[in-house]
Amino acid sequence: MPRPTARVLTLLELLQSGGTRTVAELADRLGVEGRTVRRYVDQLIDLDVPVESVRGRYGGYRLAPGYRLPPLMLSDDEALAVLLGLVAGGRAGLTTAQHTASETASAKIRRVLPQHIARRLDTLLEALAVTDRPGAFDTPDAGVLLTIADAVRHRRPVSIRYTDRDGRRSDRTLHAYGIVAHAGRWYVTGQDARIGEDRTFRLDRIADARTLPGSFEAPADPDPAQRVLSGFATAEYRHEVTLRIHGTVDQIRAHLPVSVASLEEHEPAAGQDRATERWLRVELRAERLDWLPPVLASLDRPFVIERPDELRDLVIALADRLASHARRACRDPS
After folding, report:
1. What is the SS3 assignment for 23?
2. What is 268-283 written as a DSSP string?
3. Residue 219: is the preceding peptide bond cis (ω within 30°)?
């Protein structure tokens, strides 16, 4: 049977969820009589928690805004979600001007975490990398997230049940190198043990994760974030595009980031000066090509399309449309 103090804290948690709660509802949730609910409310008021009494047919109790924040009660999953939000926001640059506010908030929550949750959180943070493209993150299963984080830390194989983008389900054994938060999604990258190749999996598509016996050797510097971004650039899509662009890495990366395209030096032809003929080979894959001509135009750098011919046709069509619009504007008497 819960102790009275536990019931008082449960009452506070119910009131913190918002709205007005009737005495009958609170009594039912707490497993006590109505007069006991009133006694618990008096105890909260004695603790300076601003509880208001609401009269009428639909009356009851609610929390009133006050000068002091009522004690905050979080479940294990809620505490984990809050801390992950603070940490991910800090790593992705989504902090307020008062940077110390997020640090002190994190410290306060961590001080009151149960020890086993604190250890699991530390394990997850060690395995987590955040790219420079933040977003509104999806919500993978907390159990899956923590299990994989533990497998990353201890270099243990993990069995996952995965559903790919085409809806195909499969059971895989993964040697996980790290967890990456990128552009609003969570990913795990590592080696698919069955085929012996590196793969990246979306965490929200993993239905189950189970740590397996044994261990594995990870690469000396796995850099999970870089592996995830490179994987996007080389993923299998309908079109394979190869370009040569005259410019610097920074100029090209401003429009074609690591997650979109891979770059490598292109050797100049015989007799050409490497310093003046700095061409980079750009390779990428895409389901559609219609977004590429405007990107190439915005680069404002000389480029050569090696493949596919369809992209060359789209670029020419865009150039013709722009030229046509420009000529029309010149003839417009207004």
Report:
1. helix
2. PPTT--TTT--EEEEE
3. no
Four-CA torsion 18, 21, 25, 30, nearest 10 degrees: 60
User: Model confidence over 225-253: pLDDT tens digits?
Assistant: 777 777 665 566 678 899 999 999 889 98
Residues 6+ apart with CB under 8 A from 233: 258, 259, 260, 261, 262, 283, 284, 285
What's the residue count for the chain?
334
86 vs 101: CA distance, rounded Å: 10
Nearest to 90 by CA among 36, 128, 142: 128
Beta-sheet pairing, 279-286 with 239-246:
antiparallel
β-strands 158-163, 303-307: how paired?
Answer: unpaired
Beta strands 128-130; 169-182: pairing state: parallel
pTM value surpassing 0.90: no
Query: 158 in the Ramachandran plot: left (φ > 0), alpha (ψ -120 to 50) or beta?
Result: beta
Per-residue pLDDT tens digits for 242-287: 999 999 988 998 898 887 888 988 665 555 555 555 899 998 888 7
* Identity of the amino acid at 73: M
Query: Taking Cα atoms as reference points, which of 101, 25, 21 lies closest to residue 61?
Result: 21
